[in-house]
Amino acid sequence: MEKFNALYAQSGGVTSVINATACGVIETARQHNDKIPKLYAARNGIIGALTEDLIDTSHESASDVAALRHTPAGAFGSCRHKLGTLDKHRAQYERLVEVFSAHHIRYFFYNGGGDSQDTAHKVSLISQELGYPITCIGVPKTIDNDLPFTDNSPGFGSVAKYVAVSIREAGMDVASMASSSTKVFVLEVMGRHAGWIAAAGGLACEKAGDAPHIILFPEVRLQTAQLLNRVQECVSQFGYCAIVASEGLRNPDGSFVAESGLTDAFGHKQLGGVAPIIAKLIKEKLGFKYHWALADYLQRSARHIASKTDVEQAYAIGKAAVEMALAGKNAVMPIIVRESNSPYRWSIGEASLERVANVEVSLPKNYITDDGFGITEACRQYLSPLIQGEAYPPYLHGLPQYVKLKNLAVEKKLKTNFAIA
User: Fold this and answer.
1) Architecture category of domain 156-303 in CATH
2) Less crowded by CB within 10 Å, the N or C end of the chain?
3) Per residue in 153-181, pLDDT tens?
4) Which of these is catalytic: 118, 144, 146, 310?
């Protein structure tokens, strides 16, 4: 069997466990160095591939690679850059072929969410369209948990755990001060179109009166009167009201409550903070003192409170990606298959990139209570296994110890540079 090199790249918003996937890819590739002599990483995602800015992972020690398993963020840098269609942006694909060919790369692993799987699918078409043999495996990752076919997305379980822990602890804080101070707390979480992260906050509510008392989902349009009535009821009954609000909350007309008017590199509308809007509304209409917080990057970078289940699945996905490529599979994405809830058992399957690309999965209706403010038992049964277990990083001087790789550059072989539009 002829030997060919491989390229791994991280894409989109990073997570606390995406490096665990990278660890799975690198360690598995090293176990098969008779078939993959070199595993390169693209610096800053597909941009690194286009600009021939590659990293030689063989310079990283086994211990540093293993430390990726407990290190958050993207060890090789990520990006938000979506390849255009091959007919209109042919130069990008020809450039990729140039870079791949120059470095004897025939395996490509692209680790990202829905838009990234679209990019992976387009790269997989190179073989057919441009006559260059490339085996492309999409590697799933997204805190939004909105990828199709996979039971859940690596990265989500840890965010879910962080949000549930945070609203439980903040709720206890507010409850202890509510008689003479803050009565309303709003925690804003990510989730532009799907309410999976917001729903995870509901795991903290195990009995009547527990926080959160209200969850605001993207799937349920904001009804101001109903919200204010529920806030008043909670304050009257429990002394305070804790709310988890998704950034993607929508008005009755479908517009985002917190739309900023800007868009990101993928064309997604940028959202400008729903928590202060909701908090101000409550203050103006009900007069309650409030505090609000944005989980923002904290929720996706909090490796110190990661879900053990999530870490294990993230690593397994990376391992499976390499094994699938070596088995001759192409244009597929390894997925997590739930085999049972109790006891929780899962395995690795696969899905076609063509079917995965650009498909978003929203929270099912039967996961949201009839009043639109909470999660059902079915939702709880789905979410609960994903936050189980702790996988603490090593600590030194009271702080978690994370690895920073050498990330030594591969010598460029092409004479021409490539400008990213």
Assistant:
1) 3-Layer(aba) Sandwich (3.40)
2) N
3) 999 999 999 999 999 999 999 999 999 99
4) 144
